[in-house]
Amino acid sequence: MSTHAGLHAAEAEAEEFDHNDPRLTRFDLVKEGARRDGVEIVHYAPRFPVPGTRREARIVRTVSGMFLLSGLFATAFVVAYIWWPWKYEAGSNLNKLYTPILGLTLGLSLALLGFGIIAWGKKLLPEEIAVQDRHDGASPADEKKLTGDTMLNMVDELGIKRRPLLAKAALLGMLPLGAVAVAPLIGGLIKNPHKPDILFHTGWDPALNSGKPIAVTRDDGTKIRPEDVSVGGQMTVFPGIYDPDTHEFVGASNDHADSPTLLIHLRNDDADVLRANLSHVPINEHNTWGNFVAYSKICTHAGCPASLYEQQTNRLLCPCHQSQFNILDNARPIFGPATRRLPMLPLTVGQDGFFYAKSDYQVPVGPGFWERP
Amino acid sequence: MIAALALVGTVYAAFTPSAPASGEPAPSSDAAAGKALFNTSCITCHGANGQGVDGRGPSLLGVGSAAVEFQVNTGRMPAVRPEAQAEQKQPAFDEKQAQQLGAYVESLGGGPQVPAGDDFHSGANIAQGGDLFRVNCSSCHAFGAGGGALSSGKFAPTLANASDRTIYAAMLSGPQNMPVFGDNQLSPQEKRDVIAYIQNLKSDTSPGGLSIGKVGPVAEGLVIFLVGIVVLLFATLWIAGKS
């Protein structure tokens, strides 16, 4: 429609064009075909008018060579794929070259095929300059009028004005169908995010251990004594909870991926600084035990493990976006995109000499959400 | 009575000389030589008896010979200036001298020592070591032990050139900003497993070809992006160019 004017011009010329004229060459027909599509070939010349020159022969040899080499590399790929040793063996051996060999042979094969085709097009095909008219932007006024009336006619044909019941029935029938479309969206909004309240509870919740404090354990479920963590050392710890049915240790499983915690044994001087800072923080004032402190390992920015512990500068770093937390100041974020402190796990040592969590975290762990931006 | 006194005297005479030897060993010749080295090279920052000098250097009481071995043999000590991350450079002392320094520091306040031997990786459990490495080490030293950045220009170094003893000493002593992994936390056998894993990583060639320092996906992505884009750029120039 948009090439309306151009087509008219082409049609006018086409009327004078007799495609059965025996004097016409094949190229004349090609040119005419392009013209009817609005493309004018203004320059067309073969690159090698005299056949059999040395330059032409050289280019033909080069392009053929590329195709043949491409085939050779493709064959090498298949051969390597089937016979090259590929099983993992430690050390330096041929097996380690399996992936690079596959990549190299297939890559070279495809690249040579591509180079061959492009070289063919660039060096051997005739030089050609063709001009195509730019299409007009909008449809002409009469075209718009005709299309508009066609559509109005469709409405008339449906006869909605004469048969109003049809329109009402269709509308009423469609309404519940529309409800089907929006039900999943609205249904998701109706769900109560606090039941179960997973964003506010972690694996350290005593409710998971019939109300008793949860033991602080290693990733294999063994409990930890204070002397197990060296001064200036840290340990990643998990809640010591067990599956009620299978009695398997699940504290380090994905079900409690929000629970990993960093247990840090501070130097005495550093611990004094922390205690002084915590004296202004009622909820965490009594949450350290001796010189030990435990912070959530989940970064409050995007949930990465913020476990790069610098024992001299007493910082915790998150490797993802370089957030830094000051361990001695209630894990205040001091650099990077994190805006909230790392939550502190209330720590104590039980009668049996092992570490326990006094309660769950007092603030939600991990990145912000709708209620905790 | 006289006989009893004589007996007591004889017994006393017999035990007296050995009493200091069993309670507090006399400085060995190594420790004496170490003290001489200490007094010329370390005393400025660490004080006359290794008690540390405020604002210059920390106390060495209780750090043990493991810390000395790590810091001196990797050239980090003597440091150019007091700072959180001492630079690794050509060691100023040979291993014998480092051992003497270690013996002297050990005599000051005790502390962890690296067990004898140079080979801690043979026969250890590489798979178990890999587990421990990923839990304890990979957050800073990266999964391929290529090292990584810390805060304010500090960094966790690559483990590519670390010997078994160096790694063992580092775990025991927690040099610079590295946390301490005492024997209660990682048992000597677990330390050997970790070392075996690291040495296996180093002796194993990368199946993907170039490992780019094993520092992780960022470096790999950057190289692929830069090299790939440049190649594609020249390819498009060639395709579109007039011949």
Q: What's the topology here?
A:
The complex is a heterodimer of chains A (373) and B (243).
Chain A: H1 4-16, H2 26-36, E1 39-45, H3 54-83, H4 98-123, E2 127-132, H5 141-158, H6 164-190, E3 214-217, E4 233-239, E5 261-265, H7 268-278, E6 292-296, E7 308-310, E8 315-317, E9 324-326, E10 332-335, E11 347-349, E12 355-357
Antiparallel strand pairs in A: 1-2, 3-4, 3-12, 4-5, 5-6, 7-8, 8-9, 9-10, 11-12
Chain B: H1 2-15, H2 18-23, H3 29-41, H4 43-46, H5 64-73, H6 95-109, H7 126-136, H8 138-141, E1 148-149, E2 155-156, H9 164-173, H10 188-203, H11 217-240
Written account of the structure:
The complex is a heterodimer of chains A (373) and B (243). Chain A has helices at residues 4-16, 26-36, 54-83, 98-123, 141-158, 164-190, 268-278, and strands at residues 39-45, 127-132, 214-217, 233-239, 261-265, 292-296, 308-310, 315-317, 324-326, 332-335, 347-349, 355-357. Chain A has 373 residues and is an alpha+beta fold. Chain A has a 6-stranded antiparallel sheet with strand order 6-5-4-3-12-11, with no helix packed on it. Chain A has a 4-stranded antiparallel sheet with strand order 7-8-9-10, with no helix packed on it. In chain A, a hairpin with a 5-residue loop joins strand 11 (347-349) and strand 12. Chain B is mainly α and 243 residues long. Chain B contains 11 helices and 2 strands; from the N terminus they run H-H-H-H-H-H-H-H-E-E-H-H-H. In chain B, strands 1-2 form a two-stranded antiparallel ribbon. Classes of the chains: A alpha+beta (373), B mainly alpha (243). Chain A binds chain B through residues 88, 90-93, 95-96, 98-100, 118, 122-123, 219, 225, 227-236, 305, 307-313, 315, 317, 319, 322, 324, 335, and chain B through 84, 135-136, 139-140, 148-152, 154, 156, 174, 176-182, 184-185, 200, 203-209, 238-239, 243.
